[in-house]
Amino acid sequence: MFVDRAIITVRAGSGGNGHVSFRREKYVNKGGPDGGNGGDGGSVIVLADDGMSTLYDFRNQRLWAAADGDAGGPKQCSGHAGKDLVIKLPPGTMLFNNATGDLIHDLKPGERVTLAKGGKGGWGNEHFKSSTNQTPRTADPGEPGEEIEVRLELKLIAEVGIIGKPNAGKSTLLAALTKATPKIANYPFTTLSPQLGVAELPGRDTRRIVLADVPGLIEGAAGGAGLGHEFLRHIERTRVVVHLLDLQPEDGSDPVANYRLIREELRQYSQALADKAELVVLNKIDLFPSPKDAAAAMKKVARDLGLRDGRDMLAVSGAARKGLDELLEHLWTMLHRTGEPDAGWSARPAPAATPTP
User: Fold this and answer.
1) How far apart are CA 296 and CA 328, in angstroms?
2) Would you give the DSSP letter of residue 337?
3) CA–CA separation, 75 and 126 (whole Å)
4) Lowest mean pLDDT among 50-59, 107-116, 327-336
5) Is there a contact between 242 and 214 (Cβ–Cβ < 8 Å)?
6) Is the separation of the CB atoms in 318 and 211 below 8 Å?
7) pLDDT of the residue at 191
């Protein structure tokens, strides 16, 4: 089950109490304080685990606590420190203080962050001896560990996000490009959660692209309709958006109108999301009676949206696996612009969401 939100309480371990004792040995005239210090409490640490892509493990377990430190002992024996608790989270998890709403940390791949620090162990009475206090009979208690209620929100980390109306063929395309195995069926909302896949490009060099299929975009998605309002945030981290259009929608709708509808939902949800680099991909070209009919449909979409074939727009068939190598190469170029491997692609702005008068 895909879970991308959870609220947990993390509690670091408390420090152990210091010990009060005095040295008592036969044939030793002068003893003295020898109470040991308490051990420090364990801390709660979060670790980004690349093998995780859901917060399912936190759905039912609310309290995550590290071990307390042991109390000190006689003969200057210090207590053992409590064991740290390491919580594995998917990269891209945002941790918020649930009481204040403040962002604590945005977890990046490979990061290891202390979320709650363990309490210090208390001093034993041996620590307090002095020339004026040779028999101290007090020791410090251990300090309590930090405790905080944390809201976890996952935003999947993918380079390319695939969007489009239900039944546009997003899951089929993801399965064709990667080794992902999303559910594929001929009815809307087949995919009920975002799906990740890694595409390997042909060639001698190892080149990979991480793609995410974001389901449920329909009219009103930004306001809560369909599934889109739940999952739109998962493409906020992407650098390129693939807008998949069905050239022959089964409901008889117009591909151009469908494009503008989804663009408007993106704009309403987040202007930053709407401004991301976009590639329009026309899908299901294999269903046309002839290449001439497919070319005519593609030409109409390009004209109405002001797109340039091969630059802003590509045609593929996910089911027939046509045009996929060209699509991956185009996406690689967008993601790794010459001289700016980490800066993304300064792409041509996406066409207007509404017709220009």
Assistant:
1) 24
2) B
3) 9
4) 50-59
5) no
6) no
7) 46
pLDDT tens-digit readout, 167-222: 788 888 888 888 766 454 454 444 456 777 888 887 767 788 888 887 756 555 44
Q: Which of 327, 203, 219, 336 is nearest to 266 (CA)?
A: 219
CA distance 241 to 105: 26
Amino acid at 349: P
Q: Which two tokens stand for residue 57?
A: 């493990």
Top mean pLDDT of 74-83, 129-138, 175-184, 306-315 is at 74-83
- Where b means 16+ CB within 10 Å and e means fewer, 257-295 reads ebbbbbbbbbbbbeeebbebbbbbbbbbbeebeeeeebe
Of residues 149, 229, 213, the one with CA closest to residue 181:
213
Q: Which residues contact 26 (CB under 8 A, 6 or more apart)?
A: none
Query: H or E segment at 264?
Result: helix 255-269
Q: According to the per-residue pLDDT averaged within each range, which of 71-85, 190-204, 213-227, 243-257 is highest?
A: 71-85
End-to-end C-alpha distance for the chain, whole angstroms: 46
Report which of 238, 263, 197, 236 is spatially closest to residue 335, judged by C-alpha positions: 238
Q: How far apart are CA 302 and CA 354, in angstroms?
A: 15
| Secondary structure class of 300 (helix, strand, coil) | helix
Supply the pLDDT for residue 71: 94
What CA–CA distance (Å, rounded) separates 98 from 92? 18
| 3-class secondary-structure state, position 97 | strand
CA–CA separation, 124 and 40 (whole Å): 13
Place of tokens 């109405």: 304
